[in-house]
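Progress note, sequence design subtask.
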């Protein structure tokens, strides 16, 4: 009980730190933006504490199947941190040598900024703003966040494929780790898991291309000046990189759970055949 409360409190503090990170890193944050970030951080901390402190699951998937949520949090944390640091580096003296993070962002832009890539589409979306904006900075930041997401996705795929996730240490509890998935309703659970896995992977692949299109629609419909506010700019780019990562990790996880169920059924059928032969 005490261990669960301490773990929930630590996770809540980390979530609050994630929300206020841009305000802490970037200079010149307005008082209104800081107060709004503090309010959102408080709500995120309370929700996180209530979710992890509860004995019964509510909405968070794979709660007891690390490192699924840990990898997602780390990917989002480093995305927000890197974006905020790169945004704040714009105030540095241009005569100073580039930092390691700036050099990494330039390398990532060289890798991912090619025709029809998601990074190029994101830079085109911000190039359509009706006022001057540093497109080079947007390209470098989005390239670095895209690289962070790819690294996190690759690490989870390796862990799930070669390190026997999610049954390496404990048995997999379907109800606790998938509270919103009812295995008793609808068609066979294997069919539904594989269908949802295909859907998540397909949507995760398409979202980096769809979000820039949605931004261009925003520019023509709503106040486009909101998109260049530093905090909103950071969260837009982080959402563009993080949402596809979450969906693709979820698809990989569903395929892995389906493989476990299929293997368990195969063993059960083999035992039945042996009993019938005896």
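Output:
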């Amino acid at each position: 009980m005490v261990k669960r409360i301490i773990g929930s409190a630590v996770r809540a503090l980390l979530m609050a730190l994630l929300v206020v990170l841009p305000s802490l890193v970037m200079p010149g944050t307005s008082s209104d933006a800081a107060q709004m970030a503090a309010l959102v951080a408080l709500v995120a901390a309370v929700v996180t504490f209530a979710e992890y402190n509860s004995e019964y699951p509510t909405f968070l998937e794979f709660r007891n199947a690390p490192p699924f949520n840990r990898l997602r949090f780390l990917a989002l944390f480093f995305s927000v941190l890197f974006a905020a640091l790169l945004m704040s580096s714009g105030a540095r003296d241009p005569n100073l040598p580039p930092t390691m993070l700036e050099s990494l962002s330039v390398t990532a832009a060289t890798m991912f900024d090619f025709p029809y890539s998601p990074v190029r589409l994101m830079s085109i979306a911000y190039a359509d703003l009706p006022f001057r904006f540093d497109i080079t900075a947007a390209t470098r930041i989005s390239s670095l966040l895209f690289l962070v997401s790819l690294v996190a996705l690759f690490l989870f795929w390796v862990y799930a494929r070669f390190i026997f996730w999610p049954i390496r240490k404990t048995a997999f509890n379907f109800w606790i780790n998938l509270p919103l998935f009812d295995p008793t309703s609808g068609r066979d659970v294997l069919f539904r898991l594989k269908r949802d896995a295909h859907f998540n992977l397909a949507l995760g692949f398409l979202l980096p291309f769809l979000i820039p299109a949605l931004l261009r629609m925003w520019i023509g419909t709503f106040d486009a000046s909101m998109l260049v506010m530093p905090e909103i700019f950071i969260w837009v780019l982080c959402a563009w990189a993080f949402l596809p990562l979450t969906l693709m990790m979820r698809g990989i996880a569903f395929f892995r759970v389906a493989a476990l169920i299929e293997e368990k059924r195969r063993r059960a059928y083999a035992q039945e055949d042996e009993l019938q032969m005896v």
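The CA atoms of residues 129 and 224 lie 7 Å apart. Work on this subtask will continue into the next period as scheduled.
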